[in-house]
Sequence to fold (431 residues):
Amino acid sequence: MVGTLIDHALIKRSNAAARADLDDDFGSLGGRLARRDIDIEAITAKVQRFGVAIPTWGVGTGGTRFARFPGPGEPRNVFEKLEDCAVIQQLVRATPTVSPHFPWDRVDDYDALLETAGSLGLGFDAVNSNTFQDQPGQALSYKFGSLTHTDKAVREQAVAHNIECIEIGRRLGSKAITVWIADGSNFPGQQSHGRAFERYLDSLSGIYDALPDDWRVFLEHKLFEPAFYATVISDWGSSFLAATTLGPKANCLVDLGHHAPTVNIEQIVSRLIHARKLAGFHFNDSKYGDDDLDAGAINPFQLFLVFHELVTAELEQRPGFEPAYMMDQSHNVTDPIESLMTSAMAIQRAHAQALMVDRARLQALQDSNDALLALETMKRAYETDVGPILAMARLRAGGAADPLAVYRDSRYRALKDEERPQKASLGGGIV
Ligand code: AFD
Ligand code: MN
Ligand code: MN
Fold:
């Protein structure tokens, strides 16, 4: 049963109180941008059109391999997850879609799920399969791998699960499946690098063949964890090789947390755009590894540089450029709704900053090898406070100028805590 979201009157009141200051800030920023030949209205319209999907697994408390500390009023099933996603969208207006994960989000009636999402104003982005855990009653174990397992029967089971996800996704209006596998090895010699990759390609071709014409498969690489010596799809090279071997419907998904700490991710993004193989993103932030921290929390400049590549590709109308934007975060010490709202806004911010880059000037500076002014041109965009643009975009789209304040005032979490008595142990897991 879908409950009520945030009281509209609360949003209206809060926006009314913020309006005069916002108009002022927006007006003065508009004037300053006009001197740089930037039309604030055009930027605001682009910000309004931008959307990033919420992962259904992100609205519950995540956890580390040490412990999980559940928060109050957590969603207990996918219907309640949708409700929380709808609150985020109601206030922020940048998250119109949801990316579900199966079997975690399995239900008996997908028409009801679709209808609920629709009534909440939400659609579905890429579906995610899960062959990194054994499910109750599952015939064969994934302890030693799934799509790359040495035993063909295990591989077939994993392929069948992915095909089931595609079937579910079709009913939900999704157009892509993201495949991340935990397969790999913990010790040198444990596994043949070559044969494991060949088994991956063989399994993936089974999934690929099951894709409807207008579907794509997103291959997600990750350099380590849970395999600590080698993962089968460890980097964008392996991902790209697999995607190229499989065909045009296979693309490479970049999860920002899935690279070694010093890797230049924005350059990888540029290469994938060039090759028409960029599937999209799992946004998050990290300091050490796959930390799954809130987007923009650790390295907002990197996020900006990634968006610089994306905006450039869009302006240049690069063929095959149609990335899916999704978040993939694990919230351990914050209210997941608050984290997802502020993360969506951090992503929007990076996008808006990237829209401010004077690309004609940058290219001229690059061509004349003026390293210093080229950096300054980037910094000028990055250092622009685009806050008023984001707030105005939210306001015009019917959201809240200050989503966090409205959310806290609403006492949504406390109300859900009463409405959603928790079972002793929740499903889901460490993602
Ligand atoms: C794990 C993986 C990967 C994947 C997510 C959902 O590291 O990021 O996208 O689970 O399957 O976090
Ligand atoms: Mn991911
Ligand atoms: Mn991850």
